[in-house]
Amino acid sequence: MPIIDKIKDPNDVRLLSLPQLRQLSEEIRKYLIETISITGGHLASNLGVVELTLALYYVFEPPKDKFIWDVGHQAYVHKILTGRKEQLNLIRSLGGISGFPSIEESKYDVFNTGHASTSISAGLGLARARDLKNEDYKIISIIGDGALTGGMAFEALNDLGVSKTKMIIVLNDNNMSISPNIGGINNYLSKIRVSKKYAALKFKTQKIINQLPIIGKPLIDVLEKVRNNLKFALVSGKMFEQFGLKYIGPIDGHSLEDLIDFLSHVKNLDEPVLLHVVTQKGKGLPCAEKNPTEYHGVNSANNNGNGHSFSKTLGQTLSLLADENQSIVAITAAMADGTGLEVFKDKHNDRFFDVAICESHAVTMAAGLAISGLKPYVAIYSTFLQRSFDQILHDVCLMKLPVTFCIDRAGVVGADGVTHQGIYDLSYLSLMPDITIISPKDIQEFKMMLKWSLDYNKPLAIRYPKDSVLEFDVHTPIEYGKWEIINSCQSNIYIIATGGRMLKLGIETSKIFKNHKINIINARFIKPLDYVFLDNLADNSYIITMEDNVLHGGLGMSIANYLLKRNKKFKIKHIAMPEKVTIIGEIEEVFKKLGLTPQKLSKEISDFIQ
Ligand SMILES: Cc1ncc(C[n+]2csc(CCOP(=O)(O)OP(=O)(O)O)c2C)c(N)n1
């Protein structure tokens, strides 16, 4: 029986010998490759942490000791070792387990993650609580070199270093974020990483010890001491030490022996310590080793990811516009690939800025570019833009700067689940002064909006989902604050929907009605609303608003508030997202579970218009 099938609980890992652990690491790799190729998920990141995760489980004793996985996309091996091996077959799928740690899922998942750079702060909180309660266990935050570029990680290091609270940070350094990691921190880590001195020296010392003939114990002891001193002190991470942490490393993150050795050492230190572990992303799968960006996240077997994509359109259209317009600059926070900006990067490298996983910095830096007369486009996923609430408000909107936010993955995200839903952006943006929010119904309208944005000189947000869902034949020109009428009829029933998926749903729902005619409106402007349209609505109209944002602060509430202010008589029904969408799966499956199907909605609307 393969060892992987015998691991029912993390305690089983501690009973294994080193050769058995090595065998287990091979079995886990094979299992990951077989499973994730079908389910989709973060394959390369997980292949890189197989030995690290095994060594952590060998040395520490969870659930008493607590592991916090930064971002959490690399926690599949942790899930395998904590009784969820079989469930990996349904990871990120309907009815299956989450692709990230989830406190609702397992006692071994001690803190939910998904957004980067939170693990040191969370770990420090846990450690302080432990100390205040006079408890005794270890806290280990595992953070990647990509996640370490996020400002929050440094805020936490700043706090941890002076407080001297006992906790362990394992820096999993694979020299990659999703794309190759960039920036000063990465350059610094690279310098340490390439200093192979430690590894070579340790190797030699060990060899000498092993080759010595029968010698007296005192000499072995001396040599052991030399070896230990060398291994713990040779290459020092000065920056981390100046923060007040003990730095140890770099060590080979695929050598189980070294990992166990060093983790056992740091386990007993009485101060905050950072263990620098060098790993290879995609380890063991040649194509992923060669192209870790492509294998960072792989699609499920039934989704080839080849649909029309708003992201691709952004990269291509912005590149074309930038050929003519020299003031256009593009900014990403470590997501050049996901946001489609790779194309722009290749064509206009001097006007492309990847600022690493720093959404807040990205926004304020864009404000600086804008105030100097350039035309910045900041492409960030809806969920990660949450990080920049204050920067959008304080640094862009209050100065009315012409920064355009290209908000990708707006709406429901499907497989990534609750931490990644893009269902809040309308709420947090619509309360900001002087920002305009628009949303395209399809790819063609997106292109039109990008062109239109060139002459718009104030803060602008364009929100769109990942894929295009319906391509329309007709596209009326964009006029500021004006909605597009998709279907006009003699009726006082209106479906007013935000672009993309919700408009498609609205159209499909309206087709079910045989006895009633329904007007369909593309609410391409969400802020401001089309006030002329609303003012002209006949009294006692039935309005159905549809949006893939939460109700509060979204399109529907804005419409209702405006009509109330105008003393209109109207009946309104809101179709919006619940405050938390925990269902995972393909988008269509999530929509179905949420009751967002034409059949279900048509019944609700029938009741409403009776
Ligand atoms: C705030 C935030 N921005 C962007 C992302 C998207 N993202 C997920 S993983 C990742 C790269 C993380 O790199 P690293 O921490 O080095 O982990 P690796 O996959 O290389 O092991 C990024 C940018 C995120 N999860 N959170």
Characterise the protein shown here.
- With 610 residues, the protein is α/β, with parallel strands linked by helices.
- The chain has 4 domains: 3-195 and 235-296, Rossmann fold, CATH 3.40.50; 196-234; 310-463, Rossmann fold, CATH 3.40.50; 484-609, Rossmann fold.
- 43% of the residues lie in helices and 15% in strands.
- The chain has 27 helices and 17 strands.
- The strands form 3 sheets. A 7-stranded mixed sheet has the order 7-6-8-9-11-10-15, sandwiched between helices.
- Strand 16, helix 25 (555-565) and strand 17 (570-577) form a beta-alpha-beta unit.
- Helix 7 (119-132) packs parallel to helix 8 (151-163) and helix 18 (359-371) runs parallel beside helix 20 (389-397).
- The radius of gyration is 27 Å and the shape is globular.
- The model has no long low-confidence stretch (mean pLDDT 93).
- The structure holds thiamine diphosphate.
- Thiamine diphosphate binds next to loops.
Task: Offer a few descriptive terms.
single chain, 610 residues, alpha/beta, Rossmann fold, 4 domains, seven-stranded mixed sheet, 27 helices, globular, binds thiamine diphosphate
Short characterization:
The protein is an alpha/beta fold.
Count of helical segments?
27
- Tell me, rounded to a whole number, the average pLDDT: 93
Overall body shape: globular
**Main sheet makeup:** 7 strands, mixed
CATH topology of the largest domain: Rossmann fold
Strand content: 5-15%
**Strand line-up of the largest beta sheet:** 7-6-8-9-11-10-15
Rg, please?
Answer: 27 Å
CATH architecture of the largest domain: 3-Layer(aba) Sandwich
User: Distance N terminus to C terminus?
Assistant: 64 Å
Oligomer: single chain
Structural class computed from helices and strand pairing: alpha/beta
Number of strands: 17
Instruction: Supply the number of structural domains.
Output: 4
Query: CATH homologous superfamily of the largest domain - what is it?
Result: Thiamin diphosphate (ThDP)-binding fold, Pyr/PP domains
- Helix fraction, binned, reads 40-55%
Ligand roster? thiamine diphosphate
